[in-house]
Amino acid sequence: MGLLSGGSVSLQEDLTMTIDLELKEDEAAALAQFVKRVSWSTLREHAVSDDEAYMMKDAIDALQRSLAASGYSPR
Length: 75
What we know:
Blueprint: H1 25-37, H2 40-46, H3 50-69
Helix pairs in contact: 1-3, 2-3
């Protein structure tokens, strides 16, 4: 993340990264359940702004797609 004047962190950069993750099957299933169930209010409660909460949601959506592609897509 880049620094803006005054030392605040910019959350607007469009850099992407790949994260390798090894999980046990039960951990992957539990994580898939969590990302399915996490609510907007929970995200907003832990974010400093709506923009950050939307970024959290986007990241969770990407995680959910990755889990689904690996066979973990709870109904």
